[in-house]
Amino acid sequence: MIKMNEFDEEKMLSYNTLIAEFMELKIIDGLCYSTSKDFCNSLGIPVKEETIPYHRSWDELMPVVTRIEQAHEGVPQELINLSLFSDQHDVYLAVVEFINEYNKNK
Fold first, then answer.
1. What Rg, from alpha-carbon coordinates, does the chain have?
2. Handedness of CA 94, 26, 103, 8 (dihedral sign)
3. pTM: predicted TM-score of the whole model, two decimal places
4. How far apart are CA 16 and CA 72, in angstroms?
5. pLDDT (0 to 100) of residue 87
6. What is the mean pLDDT of each run of 10 residues along the chain (106 residues)?
7. Which one of 9, 35, 71, 101 has the lowest number of neighbouring Cβ atoms within 10 Å?
8. C-alpha count within 13 angstroms, C-beta hemisphere, residue 9
9. 44: which residues sit within 8 A by CB, 6+ positions away?
10. How far is the C-alpha of 27 from the C-alpha of 71, rounded, in Å?
11. CB 90 within 8 A of CB 82
């Protein structure tokens, strides 16, 4: 499990990039685009940061949790110990942990 003291700005950027790649999204020149072969149009959504702010936005993070549940066909172990009362940071780190494992096993 990723520890809190390992969480810094540089890692946050790499974690957000990892999540965006899992979601088949990419930031190019301040716009968010889909890289999915199944998605015909680019999103072209303006983004003010280098990455999508998964680390501080439930609105950005929860679609990732939904996609994980779909990819895993249920709730994976990394997320099973979380509850409705879990801190956003804990969910974020569990998502990163799952994606790292998912990528290793692809």
1. 14
2. negative
3. 0.73
4. 20
5. 85
6. 60 87 77 58 57 83 87 71 76 90 86
7. 9
8. 2
9. 31, 32, 33
10. 23
11. yes
